Amino acid sequence: MPQFRPSILALALAAAGIGASVAPWQLHAAEADTPETDPPAEQVAEPATEQAGYDEEEIERIEVTGYSRSLIDSLDAKRYGDTVSEQLSADDLGALPDVSMADALTRLPGISAVRTGGQAAEINIRGMSGGFVFSTLNGREQVSTSGSRSIEFDQYPSELITSAAVYKSPKASLIEGGVAGTVELATASPLAADKTHNFVANVRGMYNDRADEVEGADEFGSRLSFSYQGKFLDETLGLALGYARLDQPSVATQFIGLHYNDSKDVDGLADDMDGPEENPGNEYISEGFEIQHLGGVETRNGYMGAIEWAPNDRFVLKADAFLSRFDSEAFARGYRVKLGGPNVAVSNPVLDGNAVIGGNFTRTSNSYTRVEIVNDDNRDFDEVDSYGINADWQVTDNLTVNADVSFSSAKSDFRNGLLWANVAEDATVANPVFDQNVSINYLLNGLNLPDVGFSQADAFSDINRVMVSKYGIYPYVNEDEVTAYRLDFNYALDNDFLSSVEFGVRYSDREYSNDRSVFEYGNDGAFSTTEPPLRLTEDMVNVVDWKGDFGYFPSYLAIDLNKALDAWFPGGVPQPVQTWGNADGVLDSQGYTTNYSWSVLQSGEVYEKILAAYLMLNIDAEIGSVPVTGNIGIRAVETDQSATLLENVGGDPALGAQFIVDEIGIVNGLYAPTIKGEKYTDYLPSLNLNFRITDDSQIRFAAARVMSRPPINRLAGDASASVNDDGEINGSSTNNPFLKPFYADQYDISYEYYLPDGAIVAALFYKNIDSFIDTIAIENFDFKGNGFNVPDFIVDPVSGEQVETTNGTYTTAVNNAEGGYIRGLELAYTQVFTGLPGAWSGFGLNASYSYTESEVESQTDLGGESIPQALPGLSENVATATLFYSYAGFDARVSARYRDDFVSEQVAVNEQVVNFDGETVVDFQTSYQINDHFGVLFQVNNLTDEPTQSYFGNESRTGTLQYFGREYFLGVTYAL
Predict the structure, then answer these.
(1) Which keywords does this chain's UniProt record carry (predicted)?
(2) With left for phi above 0 and alpha for psi between -120 and 50, is residue 591 left, alpha or beta?
(3) How far, in Å, CA of 706 to CA of 701, rounded?
(4) What's the predicted TM-score (pTM) here?
């Protein structure tokens, strides 16, 4: 009798607790149905029931589903894929248990997540942040609601995704854009479904165990999904439909330390030269801190549809659509503490090096020391749409043509409403006075909550002391859309070395826009006489007590935003507008007295047109007795990028100045509208080789030149230049439409050993990155040579003589930050303990570990002195482990995700990049399949209530301490 190698399908059989005999050819047949390519022909045996002694009627047909099937499909896709990749799949549409694809992807080796509000959103790959990750859906580029290129994967319900692949090494046919890697999500292909008709429904209730600590927060939520796949007309027409709804409470209690942006001599040692370079002898002082309750509701509705037509075995036409609507309405209540800057009186200071981490701060006439009672209201309405039509035609036995047309769009409408309240000496009098008697005592405790004391503590909850002093609305709307056309050819070769040649072309047209606007009324640092504060009434407020770990902080007034605004603005709150504002103190029709030109200058469009072509040779050869597969190719990419901007030309019509009228009628004639940008071409070679050493083991090698374009919002044009009275030209830009991509040369080598019931994988990788974006000051900058409309001379206002202009300093974002290497090791192990008897054979383990290091550093001064900081997104150690058990319809698993310290943006604070402490997030799930149709499920996310903790440079300078709570799910599943 022939000897057959056991298949990794044994992994599924053991995980399902099945002990029945299975014919060897059944195992190999299961291997052949892999998502990528079929296994080598020599590994597949023909049925030989008589020879093997099997009776066909006695063979037990086994269908493996659930987590075990997902592991099998993932290992097979990885094994037979032609690049270094990680795979994630669901046996059925709606079977992935994770809340979003962000959670699901973090199960893969070398991938970690940044939690926002307790939920995974952005992912990091091999120590690189989301901006270096390129993402596609069904092979098509996706745009993002983030306002950059970083995809927010929490927008994608896991119930509507059937598979995900993370390509860590590229090939020429893949769309360029991922220095860290490319994430490919896929929705259902109905004609590929196993069943003729398949319907799955999931209903789950949800509970957050910290919601009772937040006044007004919802404790309960729900998760609901339906999906259907069907085949009609003799399986020539397929239809897939899916809907997923998530309605979950958003809950957190947080302390946020603010950066050290001031300095003062607090210890009386003025000759101490260890202080700030600009003020030797001084110590660094934090701007302050915030203590807040966060609550609200996040609602996500996801829709998926696909129709597929295959009139014959040579032609397939498919149209698909994916839509996501993610709405978040949240409040933040508590207090914002302003320590007061260099003019504050400080006694009993506590120092960490030359930074103040504690002491008694007392308001002086020149300081801004105060405690603001905050009642913020944030609304974020996000929309993601993706549409595509794909035709695949096998023209001849050798030639296949694939054509694809797609459209992807994203819109984020974020509205930040801030309500400030301050303490009055007496709010009941006709002309209340701002209370100047402010003393704040605090001591940071590293990654634990601080000790605090306030002289006004009793007043925070006193309706006769607290008055609303300012309200502001700051909308930020960004839209991003891309239309793409793609044509690919594959020609099979009868060659001992090459199996086929692939070539193709892709064109995309992308447009990004952002719009800023503003409305402000009142004063957050005092009481305005022209915009007087609001006296609160009993029906507008509720006294809030802190609970749990925060229970020792003083109570405060939670203010009903709508009631307060109705009383303050009886005619309705004026809508925010895009306006120049007034710098001269003259009131406009909406009460603006401030310069709001940023709302105009930071609004604009970015255009990006890309034409790419590639040629790739697919390898299928033998070197000696070793089979070798893979590909070698090159991708040529031409990029044409530009952005709108307003240049300050001093109102000179000869330089293009125009009278620009804002939304409330204010006219500004200083600026010239223009469009600037750059065009460049890149060539990206790639090589992927897979050496099959034995039937069970293989070695992969990959090398490539890769690129990631700058964040789309960093290409926006907000540049300006002005000429001073001496004729010197100076300018600045937060962004830069001339930014080039990040480039890297990368190399991968991995060893994969496939066990009868699992796999062991070890990989090494190395990336050499050319440069990063940094903001620098360029002296003697050639303004005219770089396209700025600047005059050759000015007229001296005193003498009336002409003064020739000279080039000064231009501060801008550039690609000249020093690059460097990123290198690391990845290990992965999957095992089902099939050697155990009976029900014990249902145990299994899926684990991975990655180590990443980099010489790339940036400088940060948020903690005071300038110190080096690691590459954002890089954790040296990342590990995942899932212990699972399946037997007789019962399934249980516990999963842990660990990452050590890393750098990222601080929670809820823009542009404050801080160090985050390591974290371990543990999830648990158990289910029982009652019969062929019904199952019940219980799930706990964040089982250990892991907080998010960050710091400025070292742990004694506290950044974020945010606590989210555990989420419990209880639900039922119905399948037909």
Answers:
(1) Cell outer membrane, Membrane, Receptor, Signal, TonB box
(2) left
(3) 16
(4) 0.84
